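Researcher: Sequence of NHL repeat containing protein follows. Predict its structure.
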Amino acid sequence: MRHRNILLLSAVVSALSVGASYAQPPTAPPDRHRGIAQQGVVRSGDTPLSAARVTLYQAGDGTGRGARALARARSDAQGRFRLVYQRPAEPGAVLYVTADAPRGKQRGRAGHGVAPVRLTTVLGHAGRRAPIVVNERTTVAAGFAMAQFTKGSEISGGHPGLQNAAGVSHNLADIATGDVARVLATAPNGRETSAMRAFNSLANILSGCTAGETCGDLFALATPPGQSPPRDTFQAAADIARAPGHDVDALFGLASVRPLYTPALREAPDAWTIALRYVGNGHEIDGPGNVAFDAEGTAWIANNYAFGSDPLTTACGSRILSRLTPTGEAVRGAPYRGGGLYGAGYGVTLDPRGRVWVGNFGFQGTGCPNDASRLYRSVSEFTPNGLALSPPWGWRRGDILQPQGMMSDRRGNVWVANCGGRSVTRIPQGRARDARNISFGDRIVKPFDVTVDTSGRTWVTGNGTDNVGLLSPSGELLRTVEGGGIKRPMGIASDSLGNVWVSNGGVVVAPCEGTTPAMLAEAVVDIVTRHVDASVTMIRPDGSTPPKPFVNDGLFLPWGMAVDGDDTVWVSNFGGRRVANLCGARVSACPPGLTTGDPISPADTGYTSDGLERNTAVQIDPSGNVWLTNNWRNVPVQTNPGGLEMVVFVGLAAPVRTPLLGPPRQPGGHRS
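Model: Prediction complete. Tokens:
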């Protein structure tokens, strides 16, 4: 039956090609006044789609202006098309092409006058001269990368999130061939993880509708809870990306109707997510501890260890600061060196001037001959271009000792949690020579992470005292918060409503003040199920907490915390190869029926990926991609336990304006 349907599809598209025209490409590129010619072909698998209405759009720019059609054409009998348009004058304009199957020729039409089959390809900045392919793979790539900038079937968004998302779409699909893109198809992705198979399965889910067989089922199953059904295949792809845990098994059933793209999944995933692994130049990332984004969305990454692919070979502390483009390549001139960098931990932040600050924790593998106690007493400072501003021994004023979490507030004050010093260092307006130590004595032990709330107050987790401290904007310790399930707190993040969110590691003991990384490894390596104390606590602006913490099986040795542009909460895990997403205090942004603290990600698993290992940090970029640090390997041999990748879930969260200076802010132009 399936073979017969494919033959029928071929016959239909051949019949529809009568009257279609195709102009041959010009012998020389036209000048701007004569227009630019964009050529391409519309296909479903290897089958050309004729008589499709092809439209070239300029995406909306995030100022309220919607997408604008620049050119239209019809595909010919071979699926080919040619669009002639004037190049947009706006710098950074993002262009995309849609191909709508002829109306009335597909079963399961979405609505009057609307073709349910809409295939899409994102061209990117200011177009492309080379021919393109529009098919189901490019549609999935566009739907996932542009998920946070899509309303209906229209793409619109602000800089730099929209432009960066266009680049990420090309990491998924090769628009020149319609195949899987090189980044997704090759190591450390490719056959090393299930992401490529999930991507092909998603394309197969769409292909059944392209053949006119499954559109009704697809649109019903892709409908996000509480929202209207999608009206075409591109909107369906974006809706699946935004609600990847919804109707997972039933959608997987659609993938077998017309399995054009291989290799594909053999069983349903926990959720329909796509997670890419990035490695920069391939020999720099080792034990990434945390990541911070600048205003353009490039990722600054602090590494624990000097790069080494063999975990049995001793690695000393990293002396580099990695910086990746939004699509995962090393920025030209990066990684950066100097400024006292050594064995950075969880501390990296940007201040309002775009300067980058890194905490030198002194991480190193067993057997390294360096004396870490001479190297874990500083922070390093860099210009936005990666030039070290701190001296070769780093900035040391303020009694810095084993620094971990760091954050700059909007006034440029940089806060440093001294995990080994029972204190916080405040660097006023980034003036390192004026740094001041704020000692807690026994009130807060093993301070691990810091955040700044909507009132400019600073909160710090006390991993050794099961509490959280609240400091005034000037650094006075106002109070400590206990209870609410706070147990071995690690990461902390603020939301836009004045609340702060705390990850309770349960058995995760911060590796400072007498606790070594080897002790941490021994404590967690044999934990194979969620620990009873693994949870998340919300602290209200007045310091009160709900009586019980929030618990679900997406929390497995929880470590890092982030809040996205919709105030939903993200938790990274040092075990379980998963990231959890919780409904935040702004319940209106959550799926219907959920309340604060309920899991948005699957309650039994979180969002899993076999590309994840032991993760410390989670952060959200301006495109809504969720970045996690593969900090340690699953079996952390202490000569070099570091993981070697960043893992990025594409289009999964509400975008955040960067750099992050306390509570998250929404960038202009996303689909909220």
